[in-house]
Amino acid sequence: MAKGLTDEIVARIERAGLKIVSMRRMRLDRGLAEELYSVHRGKDFFGRLVEHVLSGEVVVMLV
After folding, report:
1. CA separation (Å) from 51 to 27, 29, 36, 61?
2. pLDDT digits (tens, 9 = 90+) for 8-52
3. What does 51-63 look like in DSSP terms, one character per residue?
4. Which CATH architecture group holds 5-62?
5. What are phi and psi of 45, to 5 degrees?
6. Closest CA to 28 of 2, 62, 5, 51
7. Beta-strand (E) ranges in 1-63?
């Protein structure tokens, strides 16, 4: 997650009247990343998309 963006994203979710039930930082493994973006499998950007999400931590939220 790009530095400083987490707080802004959380604020926008809450301003929209939604509640964040759970939130944690994690690194995805390749299998999970490919499953997450499986709707894009076969498209020319699929590999770059997966590599990008694998490049660092993500923030997972249950909203």
Report:
1. 12, 10, 13, 21
2. 999 999 999 999 999 999 999 999 999 999 999 999 999 999 999
3. HHHHTS-EEEEE-
4. 2-Layer Sandwich (3.30)
5. -95, 0
6. 51
7. 22-26, 58-62
Per-residue tokens: 7: 């707080």
pTM for the whole thing? 0.75
Residue 5 vs residues 43, 46, 51, 59: alpha-carbon distances, Å: 28, 24, 20, 10
* CA angle (10, 16, 22) in 5-degree steps: 40
Are residues 1 and 59 in contact, defined by beta-carbon separation less than 8 angstroms?
Answer: yes
Max Cα-Cα span within the chain? 36
Q: Is the pLDDT of residue 1 over 80?
A: no
Specify whether the backbone of 33 is left (phi greater than 0), alpha (psi in -120 to 50) or beta.
Answer: alpha
